[in-house]
Amino acid sequence: MSQVDADERFMAAAIALARRGLGVCAPNPAVGALIVKDGVVLARGWTQAGGRPHAEAEALRQAGDKSRGSTLYVTLEPCSHHGKTPPCAEAVIASGIARVASAIEDPDPRVAGRGHELLRAAGLIVRTGVCAQAALRANLGHVLRVTQNRPLITLKLAMTADGFVAGGPNEPRLSITGEAANGAVHLMRAMYDAILIGVGTALADDPLLTVRLPGLEQRRPLRIVLDSALRISPASRLVATARSHPTLIIAGEAAPAANEARLVAENVAVARVPTDGGGRLDLRAALGLLASRGLTRIFCEAGPTLAEALLREDAADDIIMLTSQKRLARPGLCGFTAERINALEDGSRYRLVEQRAIGDDLLTRRERIS
Ligand code: AOF
Ligand code: ZN
């Protein structure tokens, strides 16, 4: 196998390791690292819960003395700053690693190329850009937070075969998708820092937005509701479970203080952002607030209003559509205008990257073409 092929193969494995940290290491990026010598993997590391230790530190600790003369594969440039931990680039140099294959530069202004520079200055061979595209996807939450002051947003939509996104007013919590797809959605939730909905969905469905999968109950992504006028019911399941599952409501500046006080008393956090003339929350301001609180990845289980707003703002980085074969007996809540769906499907703004059956449902995933 050529060096280039081997680099790509090991980097793909490092990216798979990195993904283990998604949903647990914010505000830090989920990084993966492999230490390889003569084609043999000596150690594997990924960013740990809470963001530390960093991936390289984990792999180096495992490899011990054996790392001398080996190659390090790392999905993000090793850090060069003295932050909460000493710089990974220095630890890599001290370990005697001879060569580093790195996927992308870290846009964090404290690093921004200095990690690679440090390694080169110490005489290590450094190859950058290995599997850059795939690594960028895995690190996109971090990259967007640092460069655009907003988290990555995955928009998830579920639709019946006849184009409805929910049942009518008398059918709250009608499950559009089957059990297998619902399980897949819970697994997706676990890989994000937060779950986002609009107040319309909170009022119509009274959702819990928790991760209900055996072994992953401890994953508690922040549950966020955009609620300009603080209309959410204090009796809702979201509010009732706020002592055990962190919950944040983003309201407009004019929302009643008494409503806020009632929510805060139940352990719900309330933040405020400006609204436009029509009383709608400034979405960019809301996303900026979430980025400044350290959130990197948001899973948005939006109804039509919020989904349209995200698409209008060009803020949806990927779109997961779950389509069931079900047709509703009575007309339900209509999802999206035909133009919206066509716009998603014409391939100019989003590219189809995945299509598979989950049980009786069809999952498609589209990524924004940047
Ligand atoms: C790495 N390896 O696994 C991660 C890195 O607050 P600190 O000191 O933990 O530093 C956080 C920054 O380090 C973060 O913003 C990003 O630039 C980088 N994350 N770097 O070398 C890792 N998670
Ligand atoms: Zn580091």
From TrEMBL:
PROSITE patterns: CYT_DCMP_DEAMINASES_1 (PS00903), CYT_DCMP_DEAMINASES_2 (PS51747). The active site is at E56. One of its GO terms (biological process) is riboflavin biosynthetic process. Pathway: Cofactor biosynthesis; riboflavin biosynthesis; 5-amino-6-(D-ribitylamino)uracil from GTP: step 3/4; Cofactor biosynthesis; riboflavin biosynthesis; 5-amino-6-(D-ribitylamino)uracil from GTP: step 2/4. Zn(2+) binds at H54, C79, C88. Its cofactor is Zn(2+). One of its GO terms (molecular function) is diaminohydroxyphosphoribosylaminopyrimidine deaminase activity. Substrate binds at R189, L209, R212, E301. This is Riboflavin biosynthesis protein RibD. It comes from Methylocella silvestris (strain DSM 15510 / CIP 108128 / LMG 27833 / NCIMB 13906 / BL2).
